[in-house]
Amino acid sequence: MEPSNNSNTCAGCRNEINNMEFMDCCECKLRYDIFCVNISSNNFYLMEHVYKSTWKCPECCCKQLKTDNTNTPARPADKISNLGRSLSQKQSSCPKTLPKTLAKQNTSPDVMNVTLRKHNSQLKSTTNCREACFNEGTLRGIIKEELAAALKSSFKDLFANQLKNIQGEISDLKVSFGFFNDQFENFKKRSDEKDALINQLRSDNTKLQQNVTDLTTRLCIVEQNMRENNVEINGLPEDKSENLVQTLQNIAKVTSCDLGDNDIMQVTRVAKLHKENNRPRTVIAKLRSPRQRDNLLAAVGFFNKKHPTDKLNTNHLGIGGNKVPIYVSEHLCPTGKHLHAATRKLAKELSYNFVWIRNGRIFVRKDIYSKPIYIRNEDSLKLIKPSDIIV
């Protein structure tokens, strides 16, 4: 049974060929896969196209004669032997010119009647196969050299392009760094200018603060000088029909102070700083001179020392109701009042026994054996130290 002529079916194993690894016989035109004809994949891809086009399948090779057919009944044996020797000599001396030599030898008609079949096709195919598969190691070396040369050229071009790109990027980076460096230098210059300006402003601010403090102190002194004839009375109950001049004279009478009508310039109440406070409004009395003020303050102080359990209060003035203490002191400016309150608070916390005012100045002393401390401003409060506390 002849094999199918299907071009995709192997004539040997009858399996379908699904790849390009196959051989077509030049004689019978049948197709074989390389496994059936005992050809490796490496040798298949190393074969030349000429060899593949002249390849014969094993079946066609078996049909070909293995020797010549000179020994036939139509030719004598001695001539056949002589012809065989002659052919052997000719082939050994010049195998490629054998047909021409035989054409020139025209000695006998018997010899010319000999039919010579071509038996070198198998030798040619074997030679082509050997030439195609001549030396795998040499071919690998050639391929390696070619690949190395190609890769070297490719890598050289690639590296050149990459190096060119890198150089371009480096140039761009240099430009960018130059720009940033200029910006940084400008920023640094501006920052130095700002620092110098800030330092100058700080110095000016310090000077201005000192000037403000000095001016505030001077203003406080001026305001205090304007109040040098005044006395401040706290705790005196309010009454719509009150006579503050008469009340002030009663205070002078109780404390044994000589104070006439001509010594009192003005007596009035001032508005509250905090309206929600239930304490009565403060009374400000302006006397004729600071001496009259000092006499009245000294008389009140002496009276309170003389009567420590019954200090000056509303009962002494003939005002009915609950006994309310009455305080008579110098009339301080707002800054002095604030400083006086802070001094009293700190002195109470640190157990200082004496806080008093003399001519608008605030003094503090821990006990009768300590030196008085003049509180000029809030910074002077640091002079009141807790280490001075007697344990």
Automatic annotation (TrEMBL):
Residues in the signal sequence: none
Organism encoding this protein: Spodoptera exigua (Beet armyworm)
Domain of life: Eukaryota
Native organism taxonomy: Eukaryota, Metazoa, Ecdysozoa, Arthropoda, Hexapoda
Gene3D superfamilies according to UniProt: L1 transposable element, RRM domain (3.30.70.1820), Zinc/RING finger domain, C3HC4 (zinc finger) (3.30.40.10)
Annotated protein name in UniProt: FP protein C-terminal domain-containing protein
InterPro entries xref list: FP_C, Transposase_22, Znf_RING/FYVE/PHD
Domain FP protein C-terminal residues, every copy: 334-384
One Pfam family it belongs to: Baculo_FP_2nd
